[in-house]
Amino acid sequence: MRVLLLDGHPDEGRYSSSLLDHYKRSLPSTAQVEYVALRELAFDPNLKHGYKKRTEWEPDIQRLAAQFDDCDHLVVAFPMWWGSEPAMLKGLLDRLFLPGFMFSYRKDSSLWDGHMQGRSADVIATMDTPALFLWLVYGNALIKRWKGQVLGFVGFKPVRVLTCGPIKNGGAEKNNSKWKGKIEKMARSIRPKAPETKEPRLERFLNR
Q1: What's the average pLDDT block by block, 10 residues per block, for the chain (208 residues)?
Q2: Distances (CA, A) of 159 to 47, 91, 101
Q3: How far apart (Å, rounded) are the C-alpha atoms in residues 62 and 76?
Q4: Are the C-beta atoms of residues 94 and 45 closer than 8 Å to each other?
């Protein structure tokens, strides 16, 4: 099992990073683990031309693309800021989740095929919003987006999301053991759907 851990916090030593570290420690000893801190990568997060014109990948993006291509399971950890992930992580999605690599639209159709099938994913999101408030007031928008419009869209399945909040006013200290217990269960119960359908995509994308 090849597991890719992606730390999406732009700063080091933060709570979401510590939870990702705990996930790493909780993985079975047989797991092949790669850990990437997004803040250490050098790339332009702005997909200036959209899909109209090809934007070449920087070396760090191409290396990360290879890690996505190889992995069986992805774990992403980040803080929720203004209802979403930090700007650098959003920029990574724009630059990396490209047609032909992560997904392809079908000819003359609005439908698409996700090319990350055979891989699964977990998301750990820290926030100051209580879970009940996130659900009742905001309709779990962050969860629905990452499960359906981001990772699920490109074929990761299942996609599990753990929301950890509120962090402020002692919330992290109060709930730390509970959240770490949930993370341990996630790390020990990785089950990609239909792993036999996993197919490398990077080489054909780069040589298109």
Answers
A1: 98 96 97 98 95 93 98 98 97 97 93 96 95 87 96 98 94 95 98 96 91
A2: 25, 21, 19
A3: 18
A4: yes
Q: How do residues 172-197 score in pLDDT, each as one tens digit?
A: 999 999 999 999 999 999 999 999 99
Distance separating alpha carbons of residues 42 and 35, to the nearest angstrom: 16
Instruction: Please identify which residue in the block is written with the tokens 């629905």.
Output: 144
* 26 class by beta-carbon count within 10 Å (0-12 exposed, 13-18 middle, 19+ buried): middle
Phi, psi of 200 (to 5 degrees): -60, 140
Query: What does pTM read for this prediction?
Result: 0.96
Bridge partners, 2 (sequence order): 32
| Contact partners, residue 169, CB within 8 Å, separation at least 6 | none
Alpha helix locations (H) across the chain?
15-26, 59-70, 87-96, 131-136, 141-144, 171-187, 202-206
DSSP for 64-119, please give it: HHHHHHH-SEEEEEEE-BTTB--HHHHHHHHHHS-BTTTEEEPTTSS-EEETTTT-
